[in-house]
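Forum: Protein Structure Q&A
Topic: Joint prediction for protein chains with partners

I've read a bunch of threads here and the consensus seems to be that you should model interacting components together rather than docking separate models afterwards. I'd like to see that in practice. Below is the full input, 240 residues plus whatever partners are listed. Could one of the regulars post the assembled result?
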Amino acid sequence: MSIIKMVLVVRMDIGMGQGKIASQCAHAAVECFTKARRGFLSYFTARAWLMMGQPKIVLKVQTEKEFLRLYETAQKSGLVTAAIRDAGRTQLKPGTITVLGIGPGATEKIDEITSHLRLL
Amino acid sequence: MSIIKMVLVVRMDIGMGQGKIASQCAHAAVECFTKARRGFLSYFTARAWLMMGQPKIVLKVQTEKEFLRLYETAQKSGLVTAAIRDAGRTQLKPGTITVLGIGPGATEKIDEITSHLRLL
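Posted by a regular:
Agreed with the consensus. Here's the joint model:
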């Protein structure tokens, strides 16, 4: 297991199709990566993460409430986060929160707040 | 429709699960973005793409042959490309090609080579 990773947490209660889930996860990953590059320490974490082959895990939550609670916890723990809102041009209502990206960050720190979640 | 986009082309003949597809698409998106940032013109394209909200479309192909032909065509057309190979720690044989990222690039140019493909 790698010491740095990114997790992408998908909200399952809004009926996204497979393509929508994939594009929203891609969006979260790019957003988290660009955010990480702007910080001083997180810049090096992001570089290391790239060199390690970008390890990432896709997890799921069942409700918006669960999503928002996790988002808050991740922010408080100082991890890089990105909560993606859909532009709503296709399947969803504009502004619907879809995927939460956390990291790249220390696996230990990310596991502390996400290890109870199930894989997508 | 935006004038710059990224497409993520998923290979459907290897039985990837939803989480695997999402993580491979995220991988392709980050890889394409970092590649684009290293080029002179593509750097500005990548910046513009970010500012436009990262438009991206997820498409599919049914065979490795179709995947490789598209990869070659995209490379010849000068677009940024990234063919993702799975590390093979979980569902797939190590080295299996999974997702092709194309762009960020001019929508017109990308459509020329991908408009025949179906949405995932």
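The helical segments of chain B are 18-38, 40-51, 64-76, 107-114.
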